[in-house]
Amino acid sequence: xxxxxxxxxxxxxxxATAALAVSVVLGVATSPVPAVASAETFFFDDxxxxxxxxxxxxxxxxxxxxxxxxxxxxxxxxxxSTQGYRCNMSLVGGLQDRGGGLLSVTYDHCSYTSTFFPxxxxxxTTPGVQVLDVSNPAQPVLSTTLNEPAMLGGTWExxxxxxxxxxxxxxxxxxAAGTGYFSVYDISDCAHPRLLNPGAGSDVTMPxxxxxxxxxxxxxxxxxxxSGPAPxxxxxxxxxxxxxxxxxxxxxxxxxGHGFGITPDGNRMYxxxxxxxxxxxxxAVQRGDPYPTVPQIATYLWTxxxxxQHSIPVTYGxxxxxxxxxxxxxxxIKVFDVADPAHAEIVQKIKLxxxxxxxxxxNLRSSQGGSVFSYDxxxxxxxxxxxPTALACSWESSGIRVFDIRDLNRISEIAYYNPPAQTxxxxxxxxxxxxxxSLIGVSLFNFVPLARAVFEGKTDPRVAxxxxxxxxxxxxxxxxxxxxxxxxxGNQIWTSCSDNGFMALQLDDTVYxxxxxxxxxxxx
Length: 524
What we know:
The chain is mainly beta. The chain contains 7 helices and 33 strands.
């Protein structure tokens, strides 16, 4: 499937120039403005209207009762959603405690539960990042807690692992944006992380100058990249010597930024922006040039979804692609052919039925009382970067979804696990962003795609008025929010959802056989 794109006129070339990674000075050495006269901005206005084929649920499943990905209003009201929904995937074990934070990660036989500020501080015994020993996936246990400022201040989407160097790192992000605090740990003994930078970044009197919302490692683990949401501020922190982290490049790339994906060689970044991705050449940082520049290669914008979350570079044969995820707006996941990153093409889209334009009113109907997010993907993982066979995604209120991606022209869903709703447990789940956000009941991000679908005559707005239409405040947690990367561990997937906390999930052998060289990755 090829998606038509529009080549920009002079106005959009102006946008591209404004989105340039312009270097600024915050008391550190930064690059001059790079020359990128050839960089262009491309615009895609196609709205995907096809869902991937449903999974065929085998024995032991407890399938969804409505359309693919939906938790119907009736199920939320009558308690059916508290049983959860599962198809070819089952729960092995878990550890809920006070919730799973926003974006938690795993390594070896351990999981690291992110913190969501300020709710995490209401747990006086373990307020920081919880380290879970999952040697026995049926009975995960708390090993220790990380309590440096970066870990106590809310890690948002910055808590990440680098497998090559066995490192864990995060920045403090109290409320969507943060600055100053950054800690790096040696996780060679994954259940007992060892702080590597007790000075700069971890000492409360020695903050570092950056703006943070999300962060992640270069593949070799020598650089930790930090992105800010508004403005779109990007920072490269050299951690080749983790004891002395130092900022080696900073730039303003646009009005807003989010996550990213980095190619395995560390030379190219696919940086998320508010409505698409910006492709950057980061090879000078990767090489360790003393005064690196970061040229812009191209920018891709679209109307089908917004708040792009992150990208995963992969190859099929020797041909490069990316899977890129839209956090809101019903855009789902887009697959780009990036053989020429300056002229990339969308070749496939992955959506669930509940995201289609014709179902936007039904989406709003069922998600009322669930707070600001509803049925969109957040973080995805491939089971290996070269010739991947499966893609697992956290899909907010649709739970964990797994897809067969061996053939990009025949992508299909093979399994899902939407955990039991924790209805009414708002007060207990102090480390759940869902519980804390549920002062707002209405799904705010649904209104743009709904308005567009109504304007185009693709949906009936009257469908949106159901039994939960009045729940504009004080949401009831009648479906969980799943945000964390669902990481492959053999035939299991380890992940965390906001309300249910950490979960080890078992994929049925009938739908997934792990490749011999399985190497789970989310692009950072």
